[in-house]
Specification:
By secondary structure, the chain is an all-beta fold. 0% of the residues lie in helices and 51% in strands. The strands form two sheets. Strands 1, 2, 3, 6, 7, 8, 9, 10 and 11 form a nine-stranded mixed sheet that branches. A two-stranded antiparallel sheet has the order 4-5. This is Replication activator protein Pra.
């Protein structure tokens, strides 16, 4: 069954701030197998990002390939997700329905803030 990927467009006024260091994504907790990009084989990382837009704020966990992580990415850094997609998901585990939205970006670019003059 194919999953629907939805391109996410952010307003020009949107501000994104990294909340965590990139964390290596583990595919199988039992074996410790690392999740990798299907096309490139690059290891995948998760970065928690605070998205502030139009007077509201949301916390997103964005999956990014290792090759898309900007050098110097650390908590508090302003970032811009590039090629951001949302994929709704649902599954039944132990008779309980779980659902949510998975976010994936090709890369996270650092946004340089100009100093006040």
């Amino acid at each position: 069954m194919a999953m629907t990927r939805i391109r996410v467009a952010l307003l020009p006024s949107a501000v994104c701030i990294a909340g965590t260091e990139p964390v290596l994504k583990i595919k199988d907790q039992q074996t410790g197998e690392v999740a990798t990009d299907r096309e490139t084989g690059a290891s995948l990382y998760t970065v928690t990002v605070m998205l502030m837009e139009d007077g509201r704020a949301e916390v997103l966990k964005i999956t990014v390939p290792e090759t898309g992580l900007a050098a110097g990415l650390k908590p508090g850094a302003m970032v811009r997700p590039v090629e951001l997609f949302a994929t709704p998901w649902a599954r039944i585990f132990n008779g309980q329905l779980s659902d949510g939205v998975a976010y994936r970006a090709a890369r996270l670019e650092l946004v340089m803030v100009e100093a006040a003059q």
